[in-house]
Amino acid sequence: xxxxxxxxxxxxxxxxxxxxxxxxxxxxxxxxxxxxxxxxxxxxxxxxxxxxxxxxxxxxxxxxxxxxxxxxxxxxxxxxxxxxxxxxxxxxxxxxxxxxxxxxxxxxxxxxxxxxxxxxxxxxxxxxxxxxxxxxxxxxxxxxxxxxxxxxxxxxxxxxxxxxxxxxxxxxxxxxxxxxxxxxxxxxxxxxxxxxxxxxxxxxxxxxxxxxxxxxxxxxxxxxxxxx
Amino acid sequence: xxxxxxxxxxxxxxxxxxxxxxxxxxxxxxxxxxxxxxxxxxxxxxxxxxxxxxxxxxxxxxxxxxxxxxxxxxxxxxxxxxxxxxxxxxxxxxxxxxxxxxxxxxxxxxxxxxxxxxxxxxxxxxxxxxxxxxxxxxxxxxxxxxxxxxxxxxxxxxxxxxxxxxxxxxxxxxxxxxxxxxxxxxxxxxxxxxxxxxxxxxxxxxxxxxxxxxxxxxxxxxxxxxxx
DNA sequence: GTCTATAGCGCGATAGAC
DNA sequence: GTCTATCGCGCTATAGAC
Lengths: 228, 228
What we know:
By secondary structure, chain A is mainly α.
């Protein structure tokens, strides 16, 4: 049972030697995607330990053994799900560069994080659940890829501060606030729904209001001039 | 939560007639507390489904059957843990009343939420994990006790807004932001630690800096005059 | 490549000795 | 009240027929 491995090493499409036709390849990929999507839902609903491969197979419309054929173990499966998520996640944050206008960059970042919570709540929940429970598998990701990205972005914030574009806030904590404030609309959606008096999930306009509110409070709270 | 096969609402200290059993009573309560504490740790580490009663018993220093004697099922046990947590939680937020100074009340609230994250991270994690996974058991709590409290507090915020003490922000979303921004230092502590370059857990001064930053951004972001 | 049938194990819960 | 010993279930994972 190996834990602390790093990302980016396993490329699936390169490893099948047989003379498979393009059609079979497509079928295989389609099934893999079906399984991954079902797995994301099930892991989000009941967590890693609570998830059963048979529930995942059922939701994907396949027999259980098929799941184990494509992803040998349950651990392999959640790793694949997380890899999917993290790739999306990291790519969504490239608006924060030194030459950008701070108000526009942060607004855009917050807006896209909220949209992410609205459109892919399960992805957010799977990630949250793993982090919550100490996520030995994610340790490497957090301390390498994520830390590097954040170090770069905190550098941008510091430049903005030096140039007098915003107040001297601790940049890491600013990111913690933006991440948590936006992700809570996915991770804790049932709490949000309960407090707002929604039946089951928050409504689309709740997400809009959230984006507007978080943007306002961050911009004004950091002393950033709105717009340009 | 029921203890014995005896039915009904058994209050612990009220139902034993003889004073001679006080020593036994104390032993029983001590063991219950031991189990609850161990359960909180284990649930926080691996979630409800991942937790095993034998792991809890082991951490509490008791045989497994003893755990089942005090708390018949694993579900009874997590309900007891959550009840413990929720009581603490709700009581911590009574500083927000209309006659208070907004800056002082919100500062104090944020400070106590952060201290809570620092001192009882496991409690926060157990709650978060349940909410994350839809928490059917907590549905009632969220829609009744919590909603009532929040309705009352949003009323206070609205009064402050009417009196021109702060900007017109959507009060529910303000609470979502405060909750998420403070709880993230408990729930996602390993992410915070990784980004801040800490070895395992965030350091005490990280929590202090968090409290100061969140307070500043909330007060300034809501247009509240600091201090009085 | 796919699926049925099952091995093998660890779990929650309990019976019953003390 | 306490704990040992165990039962029965449901899980992950796989062997082996198609």
